[in-house]
Write a structure and sequence with these properties.
- This protein is α/β, with parallel strands linked by helices and 472 residues long.
- The protein has four domains: 109 residues, PAS domain (Beta-Lactamase); 176 residues, P-loop containing nucleotide triphosphate hydrolases (Rossmann fold, 3-Layer(aba) Sandwich); 72 residues, Helicase, Ruva Protein, domain 3 (Orthogonal Bundle), CATH 1.10.8.60; 45 residues, Arc Repressor Mutant, subunit A.
- Helix content is 45%, strand content 15%.
- It has 20 helices and 14 strands.
- The protein has a five-stranded antiparallel sheet, sandwiched between helices. Strands 7-8-11-6-12 form a five-stranded parallel sheet.
- β9 and β10 form a beta hairpin.
- α14 crosses α16 and α16 packs across α17.
- The longest helix has 27 residues.
- The radius of gyration is 36 Å and the shape is elongated.
- The protein binds adenosine-5'-triphosphate and magnesium ion.
Amino acid sequence: MAQPFADNNKTGLTRDLIEAMFPMFEQASAGAIAVDSECRITWINASYAALLGVDNPEAVIGQPVRPVIPHTRMPEVVASGRPLLLDIMEYGDQQLVVTRLPFFDESGAVIGAVAFVLYDDLQPLTPLVSKYRRLHQDLLAARKALARHARGTRYSLGDFVGASTAALEVKRRARLAAGRDMPVLILGETGTGKEVLAQSIHAVSGRAGKPFVGVNLAAVPENLLEAEFFGVVPGAFTGADKRAREGKFKLANGGTLFLDEVGDMPLALQAKLLRALQEGEIEALGSNRVESVDVRVIAATSRNLEAMMAEGSFRSDLYYRLNVLEIPIPPLRDRLADMGILCEALLEDICQGLGVRGEITDEGLEALSAHDWPGNIRELRNVLERALTMDEDSGTLDADAIFKVLPKQAASRSGKAGLHGGAAKPLSEVVAEAEAEAIRNALLVSRGNRSQAARLLGISRSALYEKLARVS
Ligand SMILES: Nc1ncnc2c1ncn2[C@@H]1O[C@H](COP(=O)(O)OP(=O)(O)OP(=O)(O)O)[C@@H](O)[C@H]1O
Ligand SMILES: [Mg+2]
């Protein structure tokens, strides 16, 4: 067969070199081909012709290369004068590892290109390919972790708005907690930002790239809690799911487990949780195999755990286990200095969501500061949102606009109304009335959300349901 460069002037060192090495390449490769400056085939060796299934190699000489090798990038090499040293080219159902070099005349003009098929199966490249696959998998895992992280936590420390001494102390402790891997107990009334803080701590901790998994102990029915925590193996009990279910501990592995409303945890589960925390091991329901887990626990509650310990409804050993660093979040009424900055931040957020403009006057702020805020910042946010939607035209919230939407003040906290004066009544009646009023207020503040109302009242949901049934 003719030589690939036979028609060309053989001058110049580069060409000499290429020509000297050519036979070696041709021999070692699984195929070789050359094209001219018009990308027409000038030469093809027998092995490439065989690889391409071309019966008569002579017949393709002078043909444009594209129809013969559809995915070839030789035209690119001819056009740019730059080699494509390593590439994977599809041919039918094969993947060919190819290298392509331009070919110049003495004046430096491209007069063609030559290509070699280095490998016609990827077998010799196995170490490289498996390394590539591993890297690719790592990349996918990293992307997933990022996405999970983005989903896992919505808040970071900047979202905990506040500049009062009390708020700054909360943030100082949160930063301290983030820097160490110790258990944290967040205490605060409803709506004070316990969840915001828990997520922030995770987001600035060394575990930030790992999952943040929350369990709300007040929201999960008691009989499902253990499975929720530790997972279930398939068919663990009658009626159990055929598939295995991962527990929250496992899901949070490497990251943070947020035990929200930890004061609502049944005693039996408290013992199991304590064991899991002490041993760093869990056992899925229906399995007899323990698995180690590595989670940092952040617990939160609006209940008075010390009082609960005193009455025996919260285990003291668990309390001390969880309460290595305590972060009490003061209620809004105790940090009124933050009212202005909070309103500003909340209004900005609300306005963005609603696509409206909004600001609050000094009188508006004063009206807010006079309120007792049983629902704290969540309630403040609701009030601002309602005031804005009712008063969309001006977008300026003055005292009137605020008073219109402020919930009726709960009577119970300061005992200002309802219980004083009037004729003496049997104590049971007074207590029943006070209770009914407290329930009404809690439902009003929580806008009918019974779980939240129960939390506000410091009683369990089932107790609230019972009381409601009695009242109505
Ligand atoms: N310091 C804060 N700065 C800005 N927004 C806050 C702050 N604290 C709370 N919020 C907002 O108030 C709302 C309630 O916060 P969060 O859910 O964290 O409270 P919580 O203490 O967990 O309440 P609950 O006890 O009812 O579960 C959220 O919308 C949150 O964004
Ligand atoms: Mg919460």
